[in-house]
Amino acid sequence: MDLESLAPPVLVQTVDQFKKLLHDLSKQPRVAVDTESNSLHAYRERVCLIQFSTPETDYILDPLALDDLSALGPIFANPRIEKIFHASEYDIICLRRDYGFSFSNIFDTMQAGRILGRKQAGLDRLLEDKFGIKVNKRFQKADWGVRPLSRDLLLYARLDTHFLIPLRDLLKAELEEKGLWQLAQEDFAMACNPNGLKSKPEAPSWTRFSARRDLTPRDLTVLSELVAFREQMAARLDRPPFKVLDDDRLIAIAKGAPSTLDDLTTIGLTSRQVQYWGQPILDAVGRGVESPLMKRIPPRRPDDAYLKRLDKLKNWRKKVAAQMGVESDVVLPRSLLLALAERGREGYEEIMKYSPWRAERFGLQILKALGDHDAA
Predict the structure, then answer these.
(1) Among 91-95, 98-102, 213-217, whose mean pLDDT is lowest?
(2) Which residue, of 197, 229, 256, is where some domain finishes?
(3) What is the phi/psi pair of residue 133, to 5°?
(4) Are residues 93 and 225 in the same domain?
(5) What is the spatial order of strands in the sheet that 30-37 belongs to?
(6) pTM, rounded to two decimals
(7) Contact 355, 190 (CB under 8 A)
């Protein structure tokens, strides 16, 4: 297929254009969706593009040009409109984080491909296999927050949704043919509430290093000051923390406890880093050297019963996955695996209600792995 012959996408940047988009989407039985974010280029990631495709039109919505996108909420939540994503988890997490959207009735082409046993279920591979289309990946790490967006970026972005509807139809037919459509529907329903949205207790950034045995309590104390400096600088410059100083450099500074700018150069900082941030880094090191020692936070060790159940479940699903020709988490997703290992047989009914297909096909085997010796 000649991609150059495709009609150009419709760029949505005004309120009137947004209203026309909503009118069109609300009439559709299914809509392809994708997003582009700027996680590699900003301190606080945000959604910078939302792409939609219907059978007739490709749209590229510019969220940075509009103040209120709440009217999209009913589209995403409408169970009568199927939303087709590829690798939906990240898109849904970002859209819920930035706009509070909720989701129902999705189809994930990547998960469909994985259920069908495809070892390489990336969109580029699926498009090449199904439509003979080769997608150029050179814009994968583009800064989608830059405006104006070039024509090449817009055309690249539209390809992420343009073929999803016909791809969905082909994959659904395969799923039905192999008796896997119910399984796919269950996974799509679970994907509407990705695990990445579970609330986690906020911990200081430095604590993720505390399990490293090569760091002394004093190293960790210096590191805590360096991490705080990096966060402040990243926020001020609006760039990801790793683009200020990477973790390896922070650890080298913490362990070396430099006291001069020349010491920083020896550790491996560039002349520009030393010029702009050398003194604040030395100040952070000084505070860390003088501060009371940070207490190492040991990781919470699961109890032996949990570890035993987890090991048995993992071994079981690995064997079944090999028989089915799929990845292990297709047999039993990680969320269900961990919940079953945590709660054991007592939680089986409640946990497996989210996947009746798996309960019917694997229920006795799962119970046996959990220690139900009557289930043979």
Answers:
(1) 213-217
(2) 197
(3) -105, 130
(4) no
(5) 10-12, 58-61, 47-53, 30-37, 82-85, 106-108
(6) 0.90
(7) yes
